[in-house]
Every structure is written in structure tokens, then in C-alpha cells.
Known about the structure:
This protein is an alpha+beta fold. An 8-stranded parallel β-sheet has the order 28-26-25-24-23-34-31-30. α3 packs parallel to α4, α7 (544-555) runs parallel beside α9 and α8 (558-564) runs parallel beside α9. It is globular.
Amino acid sequence: xxxxxxxxxxxxxxxxxxxxxxxxxxxxxxxxxxxxxxxxxxxxxxxxxxxxxxxxxxxxxxxxxxxxxxxxxxxxxxxxxxxxxxxxxxxxxxxxxxxxxxxxxxxxxxxxxxxxxxxxxxxxxxxxxxxxxxxxxxxxxxxxxxxxxxxxxxxxxxxxxxxxxxxxxxxxxxxxxxxxxxxxxxxxxxxxxxxxxxxxxxxxxxxxxxxxxxxxxxxxxxxxxxxxxxxxxxxxxxxxxxxxxxxxxxxxxxxxxxxxxxxxxxxxxxxxxxxxxxxxxxxxxxxxxxxxxxxxxxxxxxxxxxxxxxxxxxxxxxxxxxxxxxxxxxxxxxxxxxxxxxxxxxxxxxxxxxxxxxxxxxxxxxxxxxxxxxxxxxxxxxxxxxxxxxxxxxxxxxxxxxxxxxxxxxxxxxxxxxxxxxxxxxxxxxxxxxxxxxxxxxxxxxxxxxxxxxxxxxxxxxxxxxxxxxxxxxxxxxxxxxxxxxxxxxxxxxxxxxxxxxxxxxxxxxxxxxxxxxxxxxxxxxxxxxxxxxxxxxxxxxxxxxxxxxxxxxxxxxxxxxxxxxxxxxxxxxxxxxxxxxxxxxxxxxxxxxxxxxxxxxxxxxxxxxxxxxxxxxxxxxxxxxxxxxxxxxxxxxxxxxxxxxxxxxxxxxxxxxxxxxxxxxxxxxxxxxxxxxxxxxxxxxxxxxxxxxxxxxxxxxxxxxxxxxxxxxxxxxxxxxxxxxxxxxxxxxxxxxxxxxxxxxxxxxxxxxxxxxxxxxxxxxxxxxxxxxxxxxxxxxxxxxxxxxxxxxxxxxxxxxxxxxxxxxxxxxxxxxxxxxxxxxxxxxxxxxxxxxxxxxxxxxxxxxxxxxxxxxxxxxxxxxxxxxxxxxxxxxxxxxxxxxxxxxxxxxxxxxxxxxxxxxxxxxxxxxxxxxxxxxxxx
Length: 925
């Protein structure tokens, strides 16, 4: 101790022996205390454990006040206290002996699942206790105090000051306790006991697995959403069930309360101004007027404010005015938003984070995922096998993303017990009841691919009875996997198809068609992957550029499914990588864009524009289908130079199918519009002359304008309407089998002037000579002495000419036959092995005898198309069942290949030349 310090100067002066002894004792005591104070280490501050991957928000997580936002945007109160933060933690053998008044050995950061790095535990425990203390603010005196939990996985028991308040089962719904009677002055203690059996028991758990891997993920056990306190009146509001009623011009409101029959008053506000108000009673529906409502949609996600009072209890909320339904539009049953068909283009959003697992590290992170999906051009998100926090739904509502909401599945691959089925049904009811006020939810999905499926028909009817205002999809992916037979009810037919896109079925008169999952294109990004072992994607690409090109190629196939197959919604897998799955637009850590996002957005907007009838695919063949009810089997065709409509089907002759097929070209007088060139009369276009529609060659003068049509959303609500560039206000319209330009004359006009531009009746855009023997010569510079041939059963290219052996020449000669799968395309029969055809299998072309299956017939059918590299007498051969793939030679071998695909023989600078063949007389005679 330094001489002259404050402590030394305060010591008493020496006087006697006793005084000396007392002084020494005091001195030693002070010295020890001082040394202790200066050498003792402070208690170690809590820090989360390092995750395998960090997100941009990992280091923004506060350990004193994590997730500080008010957690329940649909039922807000001004006064509240978050209990998020560091709690004590301990594993437990049972939940029968809460450690009241005892410190626990570990610390955990609430509300992050215990398996997460952010929790600080980073391991699974089947049973556990959480403990913390709190003080009730003095200003809450005289009020009741509610203890609220956003969600706890899976079963919980809650004690306050040793008093058991109750037990709750279910990992995806909020619950509360009135803890007023258990409180005491000063410090209070909360203990939460949790049982999290994961897949050892039959519980709704989604993709959580103790033995994670592949498409199954790390569990998220314990408290995983915000815990908070709030003061309320004794009689209080517990939930706001909001149902917009666009047709009636109001909000149908049910105010749920702690007791029924209490008087309530509601106000609807816009920009802080009251636009409507009404009174009612708790538990009973009443209508609040919303005059001249501004409708919610992805393009305009406008939300009204809501204020509701019950006595001294006042809460806030919000809602969007919108309607959800289905309607027959353009001859196809479509889902509707505000009475209009809006193609629902979405992603399979699984809601996992490498640092927080089920729980996003911050609210900004939660919002980020949805913002990015909206920025990519998507208008919908399928929340897959998980129910998110209330704030996630708030951001979906606020940002304008429609939501397909899955019910978290029971364990896949086994039949649930009666207890498991009862648990599932209980949680399903809660999911629907607790989310009736979510504007963005447009569809409920009870089951996925049959995982844990039981009594699907009854469950579908149950969900519909709980919420008749939304569509119900009994089982997403009911065409595959563990699915039970389709019960045929509900509103949706839902196929899964990887990579796709493709559908196995068609819409019906009662159920719309959607593609619940497709895609799954993958890319490795070293340093940004969760797994160091097996990784998974449905198709792997080598570079970001290849991945982007492949996504664009895949997405560009959706318009044909929309117009030709009646597809009304699609879900791409997926927005981010998740653990072993590496098929996201983002890496799992949200640090790397795996694709060119500008190109992704461009193609997504192109899909949406095609669905609303304003964008057509130039350079493709289409047919015009009539949409007028009772005439939807008729198509626009030309005969003797005059356009009309006629019944066309699979049995129609070649001339009729070709006459009903047109090339989509950029508008002759306006490149922002379109012109339609005859498939079988090149250089001749549909044009109006004195309002009648003809097929004619360009005669100059007004021809370019007369042959140009501008797309508009279908006047009848579906399909496309075509307005004349030469005569604005006049649309292409059929009447009495004739085709004219007409202005709106009422009656059936809007139906008659709406067309579905569907995939063409004649799929080949170029002609091969059926019955003739032909040889296909390579056109790639430097290799033009090589021809397509088969050898030992496999297709390849070799140098063969008139001087080659007869066997080689005959191996390089093929008889052109009508396509085995479609007579508007072609099959190539071996000249010297009659009955054997070129077909693709695992991309490679070989010669094989037909086994009579539909798969073989498709694999052996190729549609002739104009040469990709040009040249008179040349042709490209397109696979009928892989429409973006063409017959291509690579290193002497022959494949079906796509430009920018994942295989070594795909893409490259010589792709167009390698897929272009000179169609010549057969070398073999």
C-alpha cells in the first residue's frame, strides 16, 4: 500500500499495546480486503458459442436484450417487459422436481434453441430446466400480469415462485399464464421445464431429427420464441380474428376475450385517420365498415390499422383487405386474389439459420429473407413444415408475399400412434385458429408428401370448416413418396417434380393445379457450407454462371405449363442452403449470392407477365385456344388464307394441326408488341383487313401495323387479349367460327376476345422427310466430315463418306418415322436394325428396341427445330421430354445436352454449332 494513500491516512494513531494489537488486526483486515478486491476476477460474462457458419447478424445479437421487438404485432399493448436474455440452465432427469430457489449450473440465451450456437448450450437435451428472476415494475400495481411464451418445443411446465401454473404441449403456438396470484414483492422466480423428445415420439416436428442429415435437420428444442410480461385488466382481449370481407365492404371481426359476451369497440384506421368503427361483444362476429377499401396484394401490400377496446383494455393490430378464392377463368380453374388470377410464384422457405436454427438471430435477419425473396421477383412463399413467429408473418404481410402455410409433419416413414394423431390434430387446430388474422396466408397445407399422413380427406374437411376463407391443399406432393391415395377433396391438386418443372396431373372443375416443389439446383461454395461431409442437391452445377443459366432455363418452362397444363402456382427449392442441402439462392450463412440475382428477377417477372397474359415467348410456336365456355376445344387456324376457329385434338390431321400453329415474333410495327407468323407458310402473318383476320404475306403499306397485336391481361380474367396496333380499342375476337377485330359489344365479347396461347399443336418447327433414309452430318467447323452413327449400340460421330464400308454407311443412316410419343415430332429408326431407335438414357444416346413403355417412346422422340446455328438444310433435334435439351455431339459421343447445364457435355461456346446437323440423303441407300 503506498504511503500517503487515503487508506493509510485513515488508520488510527498508535497509543498502547492493546491499541497496537487492535491496530494490527484492523490493518491486516484492511490489507486482505484490499488485496482481495484488487486480485479477484469478475464473473465470466456470457458469450454464445461459435457457430459453424456466421450470418451478417450473428455478432449483432445482444446477450442482455436479444430480439427486443414487441413480439405480437397482431395484438399490441403499450406496456410490456421482455424476459429474453441469459437464463440459468440444467439438464433434467424428470420434470417433477423444479429446482426452486437453486442456482443452475449453466447459462442459456433465451430465446434460441438449445442446439443452436447462439443459445450457448449447443447440444440436445431431452429434458431440461430454465430459471431466471424478475421484478414486476411498480407502475403495474393493481393490474393483472400475463406471462407470455411465443413457442416452446415441445412440452413445457411453468412455475412462478414455486407455484405450478400449468403445462403446455405443442412446439409451434403461443401460450400465456396469468401469474398475478403467484407474484410476490421484489424478486420473483420463473422456472420452465421442457421435454423435447424430437423424433423418438409421435409429435408434430417438421424436419427435426436427432440423427440429422440430408433433408433432415438439427433439432430446435426448448424456448425458441420470445418470453415476455405484460400488465392487463382482469377482463382482457386475448386474440383478434380478422376476416376481410371485400364484397361487403368491411372487416368481419371476432374479438376473443378472457370472458365471453363483453362489450367491445373497434376502429379501423388508415394513416392515423379513423375510416370505420363498430361495436360488438367478445366471442361474436361483427362487421366494421371499410369504405372504398384499398386492397392488399403483392403489388400493393397496404395494411389498415386496428384499435380495439374492452373496458380499460386497449389493443392494437392491423389487417389487409383482400379476398381469396377460385374461379373458372379462360376455361381453367384458377386461384384468385381479389377476384383475379395471380400466378403464385414462390419458394420453399424452411426457416433455418446456422447460428440460431429455428430462431433468426435478429428481427432484421428475419425480415431479410423475405425481402430478398420479394426482390428476386417472387410473390409467394411456402412456409415449409414449420410455423414461424408472429413477426415473420407481420413481415410477410408488410412486404407483400402470399403464404402457403404447412402444418409441421409427424415423423415420416412410419404410421403415427393414436396419441400422435391426436397431438397432430390439436396443434393443427391451433395453427389455423391462431393465424386467422394473417393477411398473407392464402392456403393451408395439412400434409406434405404423405409424411405422417392419416385420414387426409377428413383432415382436409376439418381445416376447411375451421377456415372456409382460404384454399386447402390436402397434401403437397400427393403424387409421390409416402402419400396415401388422393381423397379427391380440398381445393388443390399438388405435384412435386425434381428437377422439373413438370406436372403429372391436370386441374379439375373443383381443384386448381400447382407444383408444390421443383428445382433444387445446387452449387458448392467452399467456406460457406455447413456440412463437411455429404451435401445434397437435385442437380449440381459447376459455377454460379451455370447455376444462373440453368435456373433461367428451368423457370422459362413455367409459362408453357401455365397456359398448356393449367398450372396456377409453383414453389422453387429453395431460398437458402440449409445444413446439408446446398440448393439455395443464398448460402446458408446468407453471405453469398449463388446466382446472378438480376437474371433471376428478370425471368421471374417474365413468368408472372406470361401468367397475366402480357408477355409472350418470341421465337416459339403457340396455338390460340378459345376460352369462351362450351367452345374451349376450338383453336384459331387459317384455311385458304382466312382465319377462323375449329375443333383441334390429338386425332386431327397434320394440315389442321400445322394451320393452328404460329410463330410468335416481335411486332412488325412495334417491337413491344407481337406478330404471328404461320408455321407452314413462312413469311405470312395474321393481319386485319377491314376488321377481318387473314393470313397474308407482307404487302407493304399498313401491313406491319395491321399484323401487329399488343398483349393485354385477358378481358375475361384469364389468358391473353390481343389489341390491334392499328386500331386501338379493337381486340382479336372470334364469332360464329370467324375471327375479327371488334370493340366491346357486350354479351360474350370478353370471353370471345380472350385467348389462351398454349403450347403448339405442331411441336416441330422444322420438317424432316417421313419414310426417307437420312444421314445427319456435323456442322461444327473442323468436324464437318463426321456424321451421326451408332456403333455397338451407342451413338457417336465418325468420319464416314461414300467410300466407307457399307456397314458403316448403314450405321449412319436412319429412317425418319413419326415420333413414337407424338406424331408432330420424329423418331430415328436404324436402317440396318429395323425396329431399333435412337433414344436417350442418362443423357447418352444409344440404339435400342422399344420396350413399349411411355418412357421409351418419349426418350426416342425428337422435335425438329430451326437450326440453332443457322444454315440452309440444317436442323436441330429437341428432346420431347426434356424440352431445353438438344441432340449434341461432344468428344465423338452423342448426348442430349442443354446450354449451361451441369454435365460436362452441356453448354460451351460451340453448343449451338454442336446441336446443329446437316440433314442429308442417307449414306446407306
